[in-house]
Every structure is written in C-alpha cells, then in structure tokens.
C-alpha cells in the first residue's frame, strides 16, 4: 500500500515531534510537514515542507492531491488559554480545519484522519477523579467546546459516511524539543526552563491544582499506535480517554527539588486557574488500554529527569 502522510500544524509542540517520529518510521519523503509558518531547521530540512492555512479548503485539497496523501494528522489548533482571548478565531481555526479534513475523507480524497481532542472536553460537573470515558461533559471553555463539538462531528462522519477518523483526548503534554503555546498545562514545561535558568518559578496555577499530564514520547507513541491499529480495534470514533500521570504544581516542584535543592516556587494564580479547576484530576483510560493496547511508560520521576538533563545548558 502506498502510504503518504500529511501533518497539518507540523511546527507546533506535538507536530514537531510527530513529524520526526513519522519520518523515522515511514521514510522522510513519505511524510509532508505543513504549517502556517516555517519551523525549526531540522524539521524544514528533514523532508518535504509546505506552507498551509488549514482553514483554506482549496489549498488543503490541492496539497493532498499533489502529494497523493493517504493519512492526515490534523495538529493545528488554538489551545485553551489563547482561545479564551480570541473565541471566534479559535472556533474558526479549530472547527473549519476539522471540517476540511473530514470532508476530504468523506469524498475519498484521503483514507485516514487523526484529530486530537483533549481533557478540556470535560467540565466542572464531570467526576474529577478517574474520569470515565463516557460521563457528563459540560465544558466551560471556548477550546473545550470546540473539542467536544469536534468529537461529535468525528463520530457523525464515521457513522454516516464511513470516515476512518481516530482520536485521543490528550492531557497536558511535557516536552523539551518545542515549547507549547497558549495552553493551561504549559506551566509544566515552563517550570523546567525557569528552574534551570533562574532557580525559581512563579506558577499561574495554585499549588494544589492536580491535572492529568503525559511525557511527549508517550503521546507520540499513542498517536501513531492508534493510527496504525487495525480499524476494527478502534471502537470509539469520538475520542479515547488517554491517561498517564497526574500531579500538582507543588508535587512537580518537590520532584524538581530532588535535582535542584535550591529551587523555589511561588504561586500567583491568574485566569487560567478557573480553566484548570474545571478539568479532571485523573483519567480512566481502560478503553484505550483494552481496545488498542495503550500503555504509558514515563512517570513523573522519569519525566523530570529527562526534562532537566535535556534542557541543562551543556558545560
Ligand atoms: C491546554 O492546556 O490547553 C492543552 C490541553 C490540555 O489540551 N495542553
């Protein structure tokens, strides 16, 4: 089978690492990276790259036809904190890009779609601990509303038109290669940069805000695994709960202190506190584990060590 992959939003936090992983797995020339802006050197030079506005259906269709794309990973999105500031822009980007890709699949111009959802689909009326796959979902953020709506459309396109769309609800993602942008869980990446640079971090969430999190390597593995699973194993076509670790700012600060004993933490919660308060603390992901064999590998200890080792300025 001739597989040709398009990553939309390849220069973002997830897209950058996903592009590298897919190129390593399937070959550089089989993976076309695209984004609205250019990315880092390794990504730009490592294989084909195209500038693409994912909300422009005709530009997307043209790219798909020219490169004979079979699989699309749609990673372009506006995240929770930025979306609160630009609600209409967020809705436009998050929804129109999804419709564009789903419609290409409906018209048989592509075969398979990956679209990321998020723990943001849940709200303050959702059970907070071990949040089930199927439960109350009343998101209170612009981003969460777009992700919940997106899930409904994915399932609809699968049931009505047979579109092979696959999705996971990402928790906060921790990585050292590319910075996240505009999310509520971003503190869990920023803290490492500031700890190494200044020995201090001012957290925009309070000390006890426990949230579901995951090291990027686990997230990339989950993403490729669900896309490469036989279709009959992917039983949920809205989006799968995906869990790994959960911690609060106080807990990650304690773990950092085991490496940097002088590290200090201060708390100055801002508007992102309300977003974090509306999200789950931990996730029940037994459906993903049963259906397509999901298993996380990195705990908080391992994640902290990898982050500090890789961000440490070399002597
Ligand atoms: C965010 O904080 O907005 C994202 C997410 C949990 O989807 N990282």
Brief synopsis:
43% of the residues lie in helices and 15% in strands.
Overview of the structural elements:
With 315 residues, the protein is α/β, with parallel strands linked by helices. The protein has two domains: 5-171 and 214-241, NAD(P)-binding Rossmann-like Domain (Rossmann fold, 3-Layer(aba) Sandwich), CATH 3.40.50; 174-212 and 245-283 and 297-314, UDP-galactose 4-epimerase, domain 1. It is built from twelve helices and 14 strands. It has helices at 13-26, 41-45, 57-67, 80-85, 87-106, 142-161, 187-198, 216-228, 249-257, 272-277, 286-292, 300-311, and strands spanning 5-8, 31-35, 49-51, 71-74, 112-114, 117-118, 164-166, 168-170, 172-174, 200-203, 211-215, 240-241, 245-247, 264-267. The strands form four sheets. Strands 3-2-1-4-5-7 form a six-stranded parallel beta sheet, with helices on both faces. The chain has a three-stranded parallel beta sheet with strand order 6-8-12. α2 (41-45) links the parallel β2 and β3 (49-51). α7 (187-198) packs parallel to α9 (249-257) and α7 (187-198) crosses α12 (300-311). The radius of gyration is 19 Å and the shape is globular. The termini are far apart. The model has no long low-confidence stretch (mean pLDDT 97). The structure holds 2-amino-3-ketobutyric acid. 2-amino-3-ketobutyric acid binds next to loops. The site of 2-amino-3-ketobutyric acid has 11 residues, from loops.
